[in-house]
From TrEMBL:
Pfam family, one: UMPH-1
Keyword Zinc-finger attached: no
UniProt xrefs under InterPro entries: HAD-like_sf (IPR036412), HAD_sf (IPR023214), Pyrimidine_nucleotidase_eu (IPR006434)
GO CC term (a single one): cytoplasm
A GO biological-process term: nucleotide metabolic process
Stored PANTHER family: 5'-NUCLEOTIDASE (PTHR13045), 7-METHYLGUANOSINE PHOSPHATE-SPECIFIC 5'-NUCLEOTIDASE (PTHR13045:SF0)
Family: Belongs to the pyrimidine 5'-nucleotidase family.
Protein's name in the database: 5'-nucleotidase
Keywords: Hydrolase, Magnesium, Metal-binding, Nucleotide metabolism, Nucleotide-binding
Organism: Mucochytrium quahogii
Length: 356
């Protein structure tokens, strides 16, 4: 275990800071000026459809922004001193473990988009699903509507997407085929990160507002559905003939997971009991949280016993993949550090070096 500062005044220059660790790589990094949020839209205006932000090219891929250097250092030092025995990793899947853009500049698939674009289901389903994506994703990332409005829209999106899937006649056998066809790419460094966590027996909670069956199948095909990994997400329910008949949450009278209710405290009691049986009831646990949305910072809510904001028991790393200029200020207020412009896991693995 090694401790010490990873943060500098504006950004972490890891080539120099990690030289003593024997790490033979360098994360390119540059200072990122503070910028305000976009102005609010007038009442009743629709947010613009999602499209690439040309200003993103001004930000180096993988640049690291330390949001509050003193707090970052304090949390890293606390977690490093606690060691791997007390560390728990809570991580989002879509666009956190996976890239937002592929090597050709096309947007990568989310779990839902794996089925939306698979071509295995009726054209009527694909048309509905893609229309929902076009309508609701810009609302999810918009700075022009309130959190309460976003919450309502995300519930609508997930519920309508699930209904469309049920109506499509999806069969269980479609899932591995759709996953093989999908434009899903793990970030460089993710396989190594997961394997190191398994070797150190560090529990991992993959917490996703996507579809558990898609996520698990993808990790299975990558040989990364490891023994220390627990997935909490939206689970499909199939009948005896393998036909999709519903989703677990709705059948249990619960709201489906979406980007703004993805919280440990919202997890069903049986899942919490299972996690405690696997993780142990550790009153000294520390959390490394990894996400890409504003809602992801709440994934661990209710997980750390007697948690206070100033006890430095959680380090939050955010991937700000696109529309960086408009969203940087709000992301800096929520995360401990940011990896910009769809960067890789070099910085995350460097943090793990400090703990192991």
């Amino acid at each position: 275990m090694q401790t010490g500062s990873l943060a500098m005044t504006k950004c972490a220059r890891f080539g120099g800071l990690l030289g003593g660790l024997g790490v033979l790589w360098m994360v390119r990094c540059r200072s990122v000026a503070k910028r305000g949020l976009a102005t609010q839209a007038k009442g009743g205006e629709e947010p613009k459809a999602f499209e690439k932000d040309q200003d993103d090219r001004k930000y180096e891929k993988g640049a690291v922004e330390i949001c509050n250097p003193s707090e970052f250092d304090a949390a890293l030092d606390h977690i490093a001193k606690g060691g791997h025995e007390h560390l728990r990793v809570v991580i989002d899947f879509d666009y956190t473990m996976t890239t937002f853009w592929d090597e050709n500049g096309n947007r990568g698939h989310s779990c839902h988009a794996v089925l939306e674009d698979c071509g295995l289901l009726p054209d009527s389903y694909h048309a509905v699903a893609q229309a929902l994506q076009k309508k609701y994703f810009p609302l999810e990332i918009s700075n022009e509507i309130t959190h309460e409005e976003k919450y309502k829209y995300m519930v609508e999106w997930v519920e309508q997407a699930e209904e469309a899937l049920i109506d499509s006649g999806l069969r269980k056998e479609h899932i591995p085929i759709a996953v093989k066809k999908a434009n899903l790419r793990l970030r460089d460094g993710v396989p190594d990160f997961l394997k190191r966590l398994e070797k150190a027996n560090i529990p991992v909670l993959i917490f996703s507002a996507g579809i558990a069956d898609i996520l698990e199948e993808y990790l299975r095909q990558q040989k990364l559905l490891l023994g220390n990994v627990t997935v909490v997400s939206n689970h499909m329910v199939f009948d005896d003939d393998g036909v999709l008949v519903g989703f677990e949450a709705k059948m249990q009278g619960r709201e489906p997971f979406h980007v703004f209710n993805k919280k440990y405290e919202y997890v069903s009691q049986d899942r919490k009991d299972y996690l405690k049986s696997v993780w142990g009831d550790d009153g000294r646990l520390n959390v490394l949280l990894l996400g890409d949305s504003q809602g992801d910072v709440h994934m661990s809510d209710g997980m750390i016993p007697n948690h206070r904001q100033d006890d430095h028991r959680e380090l939050r790393i955010g991937f700000l993949n696109h529309h960086i200029k408009d969203r940087l200020s709000v992301y800096k207020s929520k995360y401990s550090a940011l990896i910009l412009n769809d960067g890789d896991f070099s910085f995350v693995n460097a943090i793990l070096d400090k703990v192991l």
